[in-house]
Amino acid sequence: MNEYVTAFIGSLQTAGRRRSPLTLESYERDLTQLLAYVKAEGIERVQDIQKHHLSYYFLRLKQQGRSSATISRQMVSARAFFHYLLAGGSIAADPAQHLEAPKQEKRVPEALTLDEVERLLAAPDRTSQAGMRDIAMLELLYATGMRVSELISLDLEHVQLMLGFIRCIDAKAKERIIPLGGAASEALKAYLTDIRPRLAKDGGQALFVNLQGSRMTRQGFWKIIKKHAREAGIESDLAPHSLRHAFASHLLQNGADLHSVQEMMGHAGLQTTQLYVQQTKTRIKDVYDLAHPRAKRQI
After folding, report:
1. Which residues form the active site (predicted)?
2. In CA terms, which of 40, 59, 61, 264 is 20 to 30 Å from 126?
3. Is the pLDDT at 166 greater than 70, yes or no?
4. Domain-located, residue 16
């Protein structure tokens, strides 16, 4: 059955339907897991997969403690796959057509504290090429709030140091202009002047490269930020978007307006940006409870 997955992934790479490498990896991983499950249930052909098989599979994921977001993503993969099989005549009916995705709870993203951010930014070795590159990447993420996927997709032409901004292009090819702070500008200038010319050996346009001279990958960056978090003694749960969340939270805590933060973050609507307002209000209440002499006194 895996040959159908291979053909499906190939169809997503054709002109006009191209997906990002991360999206293709997610599709392939999700579908491989799904087909491994139905095969273990004794099903050898995609034509024999029924709706109840899929329902049991997604119920099993829920019982395993998988998040609603993960289950929803896997349902999207399944729907796209079976729609492809139906359109190509490989199956007579679509078993995923009426699957109901679980309701997703909007969670407030966890953001690093200002002290944790300062320690993280101070962790890289400023005497090494890799350390100077890492400082530039971390400073840029915190200064702009861009996604990791956007960071590693940056080319030299997207950087406008003299004008003080970065041109960021998201996965939907939407461009936004994000201002650069002084610390990020200085770190980028040092990297572009002294470090990148020695690392980028193939003459490519990638802004950030690894020690082999190739474009930095998401996995490579994740290893880097985890390494520096350990060195900084940061014990809170770290995610690839931790600096992005810190960017939004710290701006709002210091009086930035919601619409400006939304535009810089690249959020389609205010609803997502407002989650950071909720987090800010929660933190203010915590500070009040700790600091006010009568906060916990009973009358």
Report:
1. 147, 241, 244, 267, 276
2. 264
3. yes
4. yes
SS (H, E, C) 47-88: HHCCHHHHHHHHHHHHHCCCCHHHHHHHHHHHHHHHHHHHHC
Q: How many domains does the chain fold into?
A: 2
How many Cα atoms within 13 Å fall on the side-chain side of residue 62? 13
CA distance 236 to 116: 9
| pLDDT(228) > 60 | yes
The catalytic site residues sit at 147, 241, 244, 267, 276
Residue 230 in domain? yes
- pLDDT, mean over the chain: 81
Q: What is the CATH number of the domain that holds 130?
A: 1.10.443.10
Q: Side-chain half-sphere of 96: how many Cα atoms within 13 Å? A: 23
Q: At residue 64, what are phi and psi to the nearest 5 degrees?
A: -80, -5
Does residue 186 fall inside a structural domain?
Answer: yes
Same structural domain, 145 and 37: no
